[in-house]
Amino acid sequence: MKRESIWNKYSEKQLTELEKLSKSYKSFLDQGKTERECVSQMVDRVEEEGYVELSKLIRENKKVREGDKIYAVNMEKNIILFHIGQKPLEEGMNILGAHIDSPRLDIKQNPLYEEGDFAYMDTHYYGGIKKYQWVTIPLAIHGVVVKKDGTTVIVSVGEDEDDPVFFISDLLIHLASEQMEKKATKVIEGEMLDIIVGNKPLEGEEKDKVKAGILRILKEEYDIEEEDFISAELEVVPAGKARDAGFDRSMILGYGQDDRVCSFTSLEAMLRTKKCKRTGCTILVDKEEIGSVGATGMQSHFFENAVAELMALMGDFSELKLRRCLANSRMLSSDVGAGFDPSFASCFDKNNVAYLGHGMILKKFTGARGKSGSNDANAEYIGFLRKVMEKAEVSFQTAELGKVDQGGGGTIAYILSLYGMQVIDCGVPVLNMHAPYEATSKADLYEVMRGYQAFLKSDE
Ligand code: MN
Ligand code: MN
User: Fold this and answer.
1) Is residue 357 a part of any domain in this protein?
2) CATH code for position 27
3) Domain with 222 in it
């Protein structure tokens, strides 16, 4: 088994392509710090490429045929793309799946309070985080506030150089002898993750003068009242842009790469695939980090309903044909994998771990405690994928999340496998997964996109 860096296999032309892809990826991360922002920039992008909205086709009762490109958006947080192939849908699709939600701090529904002349916003963290990593760094607020009259106020503050940022305080080291003795899970606890949003009292107020000042600014700048937080989705994320990392600029350091790195590359592969025998499909979901729940998570029927609508527009819908289509489909369920970290070598099995810069990861199984909760792809399917990747000269590595019984994690793979289709977990290795800033290799970004392209074209 060869295990080596793929950097030196590329031609000058490929390296130029790789840099170009990395640049647009960084811009995608900067413009997409929430699932809503990811969906909205993807809609702009796919419309430019000739994709038409499914609901528009339904309204106009348009016929769908080979070569058509269609997209559907679910509640602004989940998007699906179809590129109709030559073969009947009943014979199955080639599906790419990934998620666009990332760990963060969500602002609570009654968030604003004042203490010690600071105004705070109370948060509830989303997804698995090491809480101590989120203090003392510049934070931005992104999201929407929906008012009673149905209008939506879009909020994005903390990204422009002139914008203010927010932060969570930590205890000064001089007084921290007690804190430093605590377990890492207790150093910063969930209810301590409240962001400081102001310190200047409003003149003429009786009490909570700083809070009153913040409310006045919110009214002036966004036309929102304190009660409007009830119907808001505001996400607190690390402020600032994704950057090249290392003197050799081989890596990217940035927020939300789990799993926008796989989402971005899936979208790119889909748009670059000009013609396919089997229908290509890309589904990018929300809520993976909290168990794929809710109407915009993978467990929602949105995916299945969209395929049913598509079959109807092709004049070929029946319950049986829909089931056949799903069962005959193949899927690459993409998510980031744990990259080998020499500083924590003992947590990994060196022979069954992914290395940054070694290409696409194929994960036969994920799960924890004896593969529990895993999809565990079939050997026959992996054999098929080996052939597809070899033919396209795509480098891949096989890996597990960590050492046996070291921990574990889940993905969306098992949900799609319920249709009886072939599914495997795959993706990109990442360092510092779920930290405010995660690291990936540009080579893996490029190689994974090539792998997705090869998969979309496969037609046996
Ligand atoms: Mn994750
Ligand atoms: Mn993930």
Assistant:
1) yes
2) 3.40.630.10
3) 104-238
Distances (CA, A) of 458 to 1, 78, 455: 25, 26, 5
* pLDDT reported for residue 370: 87
In degrees and rounded to multiples of 5, residue 230 shows phi and psi of -55, -40
Looking at the fold, whether 339 and 431 belong to one and the same domain comes out as: yes
Q: How far apart are CA 427 and CA 263, in angstroms?
A: 10
Q: Which CATH number fits the domain that encloses residue 234?
A: 2.30.250.10
Q: Ion ligand 1 — residues with CB under 5 Å? A: 258
Q: How confident is the model at residue 374 (pLDDT cuts 50, 70, 90)?
A: confident
Indicate the DSSP class of residue 138: -
Between the CA of 425 and the centroid of ligand 1 the distance, in Å, is 13
Query: Measured in angstroms, how far is the CA atom of residue 136 from the centroid of ligand 1?
Result: 22
Q: What is the CA(211)–ligand 1 centre distance, in A?
A: 34
- For residue 250, tell me if it sits in a domain: no
The whole-number pLDDT of residue 403 equals 87
Gap from CA of 50 to ligand 1 centroid (Å): 32
Please give the distance, rounded to the nearest whole angstrom, from the Cα atom of residue 289 to the centre of ligand 1. 5
Ligand 2 center–CA 410 separation, angstroms: 8
Region 395-416: mean pLDDT is: 88
What is the number of the ligand closest to the CA of 128?
Answer: 1
Same-domain check for residues 112 and 93? no
Determine the distance separating the centroid of ligand 1 and the alpha carbon of 55, expressed in angstroms. Answer: 31
Ranges of beta strands (E only) in 327-414 are: 330-334, 337-338, 360-363, 367-368, 396-398, 408-409
Residues 176 and 262 in one domain: no
User: Which residues lie at CB < 5 A from ion ligand 2?
Assistant: 258-259, 335
So what's the pLDDT on residue 368? 85
Ligand located closest to 427 CA: 2
Closest CA to 259 of 107, 408, 438, 17: 438
Residues 87 and 111 in one domain: no
Half-sphere exposure at residue 365, Cβ-oriented, CA atoms within 13 angstroms: 14
Number of folded domains that form the chain? 2
Query: How confident is the model over 295-354, as pLDDT tens digits?
Result: 999 999 999 999 999 999 999 999 999 999 999 999 999 999 999 999 999 999 999 999
